[in-house]
Amino acid sequence: MDDAARCPCLSGLPYGECCGPLHAGARPAATAEALMRSRYSAFAVGDAPYLLQTWHPTTRPASLELDHDQQWRRLDVLATRGGPFDDDGEVEFVATFRSGAGPGGPGRLHERGQLHEVSRFVREGGRWFYVDGDIAG
Ligand SMILES: [Zn+2]
Asked: How far is Cα 99 from Cα 64, in angstroms, rounded to an integer?
């Protein structure tokens, strides 16, 4: 992904100043929200290794197959808790996606969906990890 392009998490910053350095391992996420945003962006750019790295070992799947037909279009963070001095945090968000936009042939329906989730995070050794989430709404 181009560092100068708009970050997929729609923070308003370029990718190179937002989720890019987190994906590259240049710096860890300072807050639960920053980690959540970078994980959303990782889904958007198809970075499965980053998703696994930032998943807490107790809940992390053995492997992760991303659905490349699913296009993540929009992220709205509704509520957030968990800063640089906290041990745990929560982020409530709505992620909007479109599926069926891949090479499915002409006339294939584009389906729009939303994921409304409250995600739980913990901070260990100075790093935030995604633990799990509850579907809300
Ligand atoms: Zn971002």
From this structure: 18
CA of 106 to the centre of ligand 1 (A): 32
Ligand 1 midpoint to CA 37 (Å) = 6
Q: How far is the centre of ligand 1, averaged over its atoms, from the C-alpha of 90 (Å)?
A: 18
Average pLDDT, 10 consecutive residues per value, the chain (137 residues): 95 97 97 97 95 97 88 94 95 90 54 91 96 91
pLDDT value at residue 116: 95
Comparing CA positions, the residue from 104, 27, 40 lying closest to residue 72 is 40
Measured in angstroms, how far is the CA atom of residue 77 from the centroid of ligand 1?
Answer: 12
Q: Ligand 1 centroid to 24 CA: how many Å?
A: 13
Q: What is residue 115's predicted lDDT score, i.e. its pLDDT? A: 92
The pTM of this model reads 0.90
CB 116 within 8 A of CB 94: yes
How far apart are the CA of 109 and the centre of ligand 1, in A?
A: 29
Residues β-bridged to residue 121: 89, 130
Structural domains of the chain ordered from first start = 15-135 (3.10.450.50)
